[in-house]
Design brief:
Elements lengths: L1 H8 L17 E2 H11 L9 H9 L10 E2 L1 H13 L5 H14 L3 H32 L5 H29 L4 H8 L1
Antiparallel strand pairs: 1-2
Helix pairs in contact: 4-6, 5-7
């Protein structure tokens, strides 16, 4: 059980791009993808050129000037990357629109991202305790108990996704003009 617990907890120790890793000067797209590849353990280096272009085309990040991206853009990309693990691009657009309307400078984005990083340890502890409890009930030492554990973890994931969907619908709905674009 201890060995399985360590394997299942491995994602909790995943490296993240820290705010201190971000330079205070504007970067070209290649420099951004290289920075993220160097600072994370993501298989594809966190962000690709295609993803960055799509974020820009979809209006998820503020428009760039020239070919360089500011620290504010990079912070927005990091937030989008994390949100897209659970939310659709349309939901993320609603979130980014509302936050963008409130954000006067990069401090809002930096504060959001730093808060996300700060919460990881305590949230990881909660998940570890939940996982230990589930493993005590389903030690995953047989195919059936492993399937039971998988179903329970899947349910937790699904419920968390549903909670995210409800929060977005309540607090971050798309603007009316965007809803019309989505329907056409």
């Amino acid at each position: 059980m201890e060995e399985l617990l360590q394997v299942l907890q491995k994602p909790l120790g995943q490296k993240e791009v820290e705010v201190s890793d971000l330079p205070n000067l504007d970067l070209y797209m290649d420099q951004i993808t290289t920075l993220f590849a160097d600072k994370t353990q993501e298989p594809d280096g966190l962000l690709t050129k295609t993803m960055i272009n799509n974020y820009s085309k979809e209006g998820l990040i503020k428009p760039i000037k020239g070919k360089k991206y500011s620290k504010e853009h990079i912070l927005q990309m990091l937030l989008i990357y994390r949100l897209k693990q659970t939310l659709s691009i349309h939901q993320i657009k609603g979130v980014m629109q509302k936050l963008g309307a409130q954000a006067e400078d990069e401090q809002v984005w930096e504060s959001l991202y730093a808060g996300y990083l700060d919460s990881r340890e305590s949230n990881g502890e909660l998940l570890s305790e939940m996982l230990k409890s589930l493993l005590e009930k389903n030690p995953a030492d047989t195919g059936e108990s492993a399937a039971q554990l998988l179903l329970q973890l899947s349910w937790v994931s699904y419920m968390t996704k549903r909670m995210c969907d409800e929060l977005v619908a309540k607090v971050f709905p798309l603007e009316e003009k965007e809803k019309k674009k989505e329907k056409s």
